[in-house]
Specification:
Order of helices and strands: HEEHHEHEEHHEEEHEEEHHHHEEEEHHH
Number of helices: 14
Strand content: 15-25%
Distance between the termini: 40 Å
Radius of gyration: 25 Å
Strand order of the largest sheet: 2-1-3-4-5
């Protein structure tokens, strides 16, 4: 069932109802599947059907006698019927499905004596874990649907509407940004509160155009306290893309190359100052105005083994300011903000904090982002286990020794933004 749950998490990562299934024969898994109905636009793309197809190929027979099927949610009428047709001996399920289940809820196709095959059924295995996953999924889905409805009704400045016309779009939910990001075929529309970061992002996109691979600005409109930034879409894939995550050596080379490109820029005319003297003042403003998001901090930053509160952390940051090695800094150098093809950077996005700053700011946030992504913190990696990541790889590619004091300092500073 644990493996079935891993399959269900793959569906979750795709935005599908998280249902996973595995089929076991003589102690070995011979078929795996997860729900892909919306992704594949296919009524038959249920977890159980996929697993049965794979198991049949493995066995070389449509009969799966002697097999046990594990599934995270009670099968529907189609899947229950397929299980009976496949002559599967036993089904082990986690959650019941009172509205559509046909393994004992609405019907019990699996154990009907009128059929020429009955399936042994075990219910409630890891039910709590699977139920919680489904509950969280539908809770997030309700929020997402509400947000999408709001976006469709959203006011857009006339110039922006003219440029996007009636193009179809999807909403980008990757990353930690509080902005709304609409992805069109060749364009990106970013909508956010018009604040200093929004102002700086537009300013830095203009400044870096022709110097670094940054999106081309098609239009920037300000209306009703919001910034509407229409840009070109970056080529390549995000650095958090599965293929990069499976190749940490290539990923670290990509990220190191991206940092070196930033550091190569002449900062003598850079329009944005992000040095500590300014950042600490901004952090103080965030604290005084209740803008520090305590729900998204590292678990040991505050509390018994950490700082008492953000004010105490700020005081520590003032008292322990390191010497700065000034370069052009991205300001939020994490995996979803870097695009690449193989080991070459093809795009830098989310440049609201970019400017002159200590190079260790980007190194620290890059190190943390790698740790979080490889540690499975984010749901789009929840279904994968990556075993080959070595935290020293980034520093080898950069050709420098790790400075843990500075890394800790800048990770702590970022907690206040």
């Amino acid at each position: 069932m644990k493996e079935a749950i891993r399959q269900a998490k793959k569906a979750y990562a795709l935005g599908e109802v998280p249902i996973g299934c595995v089929i076991v024969y003589q102690g070995k898994i011979i078929g795996r599947g997860y729900n892909r109905r919306n992704t594949d636009k296919n009524t038959l793309a249920h977890a159980e059907i996929t697993a049965i197809n794979k198991a049949s190929k493995k066995m070389g027979d449509w009969r799966l006698e002697g097999c046990t099927l594990y599934v995270t949610l009670e099968p529907c009428q189609m899947c229950a019927g397929a299980i009976v047709q496949a002559r599967i001996d036993e089904v082990v399920m986690a959650c019941m499905n009172p509205k559509a289940g046909c393994g004992g809820s609405i019907l019990n196709i699996l154990e009907m004596p009128e059929f020429n095959h009955q399936v042994k059924v075990v219910r409630g295995v890891l039910e709590e874990e699977c139920s919680a996953m489904l509950t969280n999924f539908f809770k997030e889905l309700r929020v997402r649907v509400k947000r999408e409805k709001e976006l469709r009704k959203m006011f857009l400045p006339e110039k922006i509407r003219e440029l996007i016309a009636d193009e179809k779009y999807e909403i980008d939910n990757i990353g930690m940004s509080e902005s709304s990001v609409l992805k069109f075929k060749n364009k990106i529309l970013k909508v956010q509160e018009y604040n200093e970061e929004a102002r700086n992002e537009y300013r830095m996109l203009q400044y870096l155009s022709g110097k670094l691979p940054v999106p081309l600005v098609y239009a920037h409109e300000i209306s009703n306290g919001k910034s509407y930034l229409l840009m070109s879409k970056c080529e390549g894939e995000m650095a958090c893309f599965h293929e990069y995550m499976e190749n940490p050596a290539i990923l670290c080379k990509l990220l190191a190359n991206g940092l070196k490109k930033l550091w190569s820029i002449d900062i003598s005319d850079c329009p944005s100052d992000q040095r500590l003297s300014r950042k600490l003042v901004s952090a103080e403003y965030n604290i005084k105005n209740g803008l520090v998001d305590l729900d998204n901090v590292e678990p040991d930053t505050f509390g018994e083994n950490g700082f008492k509160d953000p004010a105490e952390l700020l005081q520590w940051l003032y008292e322990n300011k390191p010497e700065e090695e000034l370069v052009l800094s991205h300001g939020d150098y994490c995996l979803p903000n870097i695009f690449g093809i193989h080991d070459e950077v093809t795009g830098y996005i989310d440049l609201g904090r970019a400017g002159i700053a200590d190079k260790w700011c980007d190194i620290a946030l890059c190190y943390r982002s790698l740790s979080h992504n490889y540690g499975g913190k984010y749901k789009y990696h929840a279904n994968n286990t990556y075993l080959d990541y070595d935290e020293s790889c980034l520093f080898r590619e950069l050709g420098i020794k790790s400075n843990w004091e500075k890394i800790r300092y800048y990770i702590l500073l970022d907690e206040l933004f």
